[in-house]
Model the fold of this input.
Amino acid sequence: MIITSENNYRELDVWLEGKKKILLVCDDAIRFLKEFTKKLDEVKTAIVQFSDFQSNPLYESVVKGVKLFREEQCDSIIAVGGGSAMDMAKCIKLYSSLSGDGADGAWLRAKAVPNNIPFLVMPTTAGTGSEATSYAVIYYNGTKQSITNENIIPGTILMDPNALKTLPLYQRKSTMCDALCHAIESFWSVNSTEESKKYSRRAIEGVLVNMDGYLANTEEGNAGMLMAAYTAGKAINITQTTAGHAMCYKITGLFQSAHGHAAILCDRVLFQWMAEYTDECIDPRGEEYLKETLAELGQAMGCKDAKSGSEKLKSIFNKLELEIPAATAQQYEELKMSVNPDRLKNHPIALNVNAIDALYHEILR
Ligand SMILES: [Fe+2]
Done:
C-alpha cells in the first residue's frame, strides 16, 4: 500500500495505531528530513533508531539490527533511506524470525520463516526501486549475498516528495537513471510478462514526464519521480535486470561512477546494439518477438521505433552531462572478464567475451 505525507503524515498516524515500539532503520540522510523527524518526535509510539551500517551493508550489521530489534522488543520496522537502508531493514525483518544469534553467517544458510512484522519504508532517493522488490543485497566475508524472499517486500511505502529535496544533483541524476534503466532492461528481459511491460511503460513515461521538474527539484517532479522509480521496481521485481546491470558494477568499481550513472552508460549503448543484433536472440519467444519488443520500447519512450528510442536514450544521457570515464588497456581487460555469465541469462541476446569487450569500448572512452 502506498501512503503519502499529506496533512502532516495523517496516513502514517493511521499506520502507527496499535504499534508499541518501532525499529527505525535509517542512514544519516534522516537529519535533513526536518518535517519527518519532527513528526516522529510527536508520535506516541516509542522509536529505537538503528543506523549502525554502511552503504553496501554487511551481514554483521544485520545481525546487530536483529539483536537490537529483539532486545528492545520492537513490534514493527520503518526504513528511511536509499537502497542500503531498505536492504538492511528487509534483512532484519527476514532474519528476526529465525532462531539463534546468526553467528558465522548461519542465517544466510537457514530456511526463511515468513513473519507478519509490519514493515514501512520511506525512500529518500527515487531510483533503486527496492521499496517494491523482494530483493536485498548484503555482503558477507567480502562476498555479495543476493537475498530473494517475498516476505521482504515492504507492506507500506510512504512517498514523501520532501524527502528528495536535499538530494545532491549528481545523486539526483544517477538515481533517476537507475530507475529508467530498470524500466528499460525489464522491458527487454527474457522474463518479461504483459504485467511487467505495463509497469515498465508506466515507469518510462513517469521518468520522461517528470524529469525536468525533478531535476529542477520541484515538489511535483519529486513526487512523480518517486512513483516512477517505484513502478520500475515493480517491473524488475518480476523480471530482474539484464546485461546493462551485469556490466555496470565493474564500472562503478573501477571509476567510482554512481550505480545509475554506470547503468545508463551501458544501456545507452546496449539498446542500439541490440536492435542491430536481434539475430543473436536467445529469448525463447524468438527474434520476431524481440524485434517487436524493442520497437515497443522505442514507442514507450515516445518514439516511432527502436532506433529512434535508442537515440533518445543517448540524448537523455548527453543532456545530463554525466562523465564518460576513460579506461586503460588493462582496465578493458579487467572489464571484459568481470561480467558473470550467469547474470546475463536474463538478457535476450547472447553476449560472449568479445561482444562484451566491444561494448565496453563503446561505453567508455
Ligand atoms: Fe539498479
